[in-house]
Amino acid sequence: MKRPISFEAFSLGDVGAVLRVSAGIILVFVIVTSLAPDTVQRVARDLLHATATNVGWMYLLVTTGFVGFVLILALSRMGTIKLGPADAPPEFSFPSWLAMIFSGGMGVGLVFWGVAEPMMHFTDPPLGDGLPRTVWAAQTGMRYAFFHWGLHQWANFALVGLAIAYVRFRHDSHGLISETLRPLIGDRVDTGWGKAIDVLTVVSTVFGVATTLGLGALQINSGVARLAGIPFGFPAQLVIVAVVGGLFMLSAMTPLDRGVRLLSNANMLLAAALLGFVLVFGPTSFIFGVMTQTLGEYLGTVMQMSLVTSPYSNGDWVEQWTLFYWAWGLSWAPFVGSFIARISRGRTIREFVLGVMIVPVALSMLWFSTFGGAAIHFEIFRQAGIADAVATEVPAGLYVLLDQLPGSDVLTLASILLVGMFLVTSADSATFVLGMFTSKGVLNPTRAVRLLWGTLQLLMVVVLLLTGGLESLQAASIVAAFPFMLLMILIAVSLYRDLAQELAMTDEKTRVLNVRWLLRESEREAAEKAEAEIHPTVPEECGPTATSAGDGKTSAS
Prior knowledge:
globular; mainly alpha; single chain
């Protein structure tokens, strides 16, 4: 007798309106875009221009404010608060924790832009300042690469991650964005307002993750085209998305502590090997010289770069670069922040902020110094043609750089594998987080929910590539991130209010516990007052210590 088929594995579990509404919005967008890609592309371009023109300055001010906010939290008394019970140990080891942060964060973006951004600035200097393909253009381009991948990006992730980790592990609440606003809007979190906040979070996350997956598909397509002669274009990218999708669907079926953790550690090992090879067999001293000088320039001009809007030139450089990066980071913040929160139980706020902001930023700077610096060296001193390759096909610059090193074919294959693994890790992490958001904040969403979001992510990537590739990916990020940026301001206010309230309660408990010691405290204060009344020129043996000893009393000093 055959056993009846169980559909438990295909159950969505305890889901509600957030999943139905957000999935419906994404599905409608996918259908409309596939039916009228040119129209959607034109509308997206108009929205992008309107957003950048009217509120672009807000992206700069708010993102810069987030940097200061999270650093203040980490360095203040609030930094000692643990994300979880006082005796809770960290769930993951420190190296695995950092590897998962980095892999789930900007691994794909670093590989894609590590050579491309410095080269694009080299041929088209930032803000039109200076002549193309000069030392000044190279120097300025590296500084802006550090800036775009520095503190500002990771401050977005740290803020959202910290807010979610605090309510999840400190208050034992649901790991939802809406829950982080409870100190601000109260029980309205449980009404339609809370549902709307979570829907906005999910939609913003899908657009941000789709941008990264699309960039990764372009990078893999460029590498495969060089090795196998497959044309660079949408058909090949569609196949790549399908293959990567199948792989991360398999990974999504495994528990977090096996699938994502093992992939993240493998990513870091392969990335370190590739970086080490370029560092050793490339222009090593030049790379370290670039890193040292660029770090100094970045630290010296970070505030100036943070607030540049170029209102007098009517140019679009800030829109194409800085606004895109900030919007991309904002749209990624729910995903990366939630994922980092999920793996950060047992860390203090100070450890969380410094771990999320300092270590990944340092690794990003090392990556850009190595790949971008080596590309600039070969371009200036050997005329390697890297800049021309990037101008023709943005992701091709990495492979032209690798051609300058021994074993270029093996390096190209390794870089393709690295991008693929980063894509699988990012997509797997995203399905996990989207499942949490749409399953009422559970820590382990069902496989069916993760498969649903994996499928919708792949469909979103396909239609964005169909409507114009890189330009459409950039436009989608900037437009989708604006409402979530406003929401993040409220999250920051709510988090500060919650932390301040906890410190106030702790101080009140301390005061109550010290009531029993009031008499001793009064005696100490009296002794200190007597000591202060003695003139500093009085001999030591005449001071309060000697007097107290003569009276047979214990000295208070």
